[in-house]
What does this fold into?
Amino acid sequence: MNTTKDIIKKIIRRRATIALIAVVAIVISFMATSLTAEGSTELEKRYKTIEIQHGDTLWSIASEYCTETTSLEDYIKDIKFVNNLSSDNISSGNYLVVSYFE
It folds into this structure.
């Protein structure tokens, strides 16, 4: 026969078990988030202004700043868009805004 004390003990044990499971789940969640953040190599896209040097072309500039995640063609399209260029012609002494990842 269950007494009131036995019923209260069962309730307390169940609540303690549920609380323990919740704490373990939270700890695992934080650990997984921490590991994902530490293992992440996500780079942030940034912009800078460069001066065009004699002999520079959009291709040579793209070759210098483009990463493996973007094709040279797409990078040149981006340079042209950001700098409002309608052609591939650039002149030394002028400036371009180029993107890079850090």
Observations:
- The longest helix spans residues 4-39.
- The mean pLDDT is 85.
